[in-house]
Specification:
The protein is an alpha/beta fold. It has seven helices and nine strands; from the N terminus they run βαβαβαββαββαβααβ. The relative contact order is 0.20.
Length: 205
């Protein structure tokens, strides 16, 4: 049986963070997911994932060449491999609170939306806080906050094309130009740890 939600996680270095991200997926209140850990020719991919591959919902793939462009080739490979009706992107340096899979499925299943945007939590040095409107205005939003119909991406042949930080914006604009219907959910259960100037986590790679 195919999962409802496919999660694409590009992987480059940071094995401890990668393991944390996988553990946060395993701890979800909704178990209806597929996790694709796709290495950008990542030399530590197997070290980071070997203790989790016994779970049939988790798959590990390795690209043959290192692209080094924000995981663009890994994201696109994940779109091809996804078995779920809907998909979502997870950074291997980020992690999830207990219910974003449940919240994302609730926001898109049974609706006519092609894409639904969810807010995110930011890991500031003084604790987790919802993303502010100022950060949104500055462009600090990406594919990890979106849940997308897999069939829409495939029917429209939409893929990531830019390797710069704005690759998410390029992708979002491409979906808009393809006629995607967007929704928004007021949930913040995805934790971003890598915005410029706010990464202050101790004792982890």
């Amino acid at each position: 049986m195919n999962p409802t939600l496919s999660i694409i996680m590009p992987c480059w270095m940071r094995p401890q963070r990668t393991a944390r991200a996988i553990k946060s997926v395993l701890a979800q209140t909704c178990p209806d997911w597929q996790l694709m850990c796709i290495g950008d020719k990542c030399p530590v991919l197997l070290d980071a994932t070997e203790s989790f591959v016994g779970d049939q919902r988790i798959g590990v793939w390795q690209m043959t060449e290192h692209e080094g462009r924000f995981g663009t080739q890994c994201l696109n490979m994940g779109i091809e491999l996804a078995r779920g009706e809907d998909l979502w992107f997870l950074g291997n340096d980020d992690y999830l609170l207990p219910d974003p899979v449940e919240k994302r499925l609730e926001s898109i299943v049974g609706t006519d939306n092609d894409v639904v945007y969810h807010d995110a939590m930011i890991a500031w040095p003084d604790g987790l806080k919802p993303r502010s409107g100022a950060l949104l205005a500055c462009g600090h939003v990406g594919g990890s906050e979106l849940v997308i119909r897999t069939a829409f991406l495939r029917e429209k042949n939409l893929r990531f094309t830019s390797g710069q930080y704005g690759h998410d914006w390029t992708f979002i604009e491409a979906m808009k130009n393809a006629g995607a219907k967007f929704g928004r959910a007021q949930t913040a259960t995805y934790v971003v740890t890598h915005l410029p100037g706010n990464l202050d986590e101790k004792d982890i790679d």
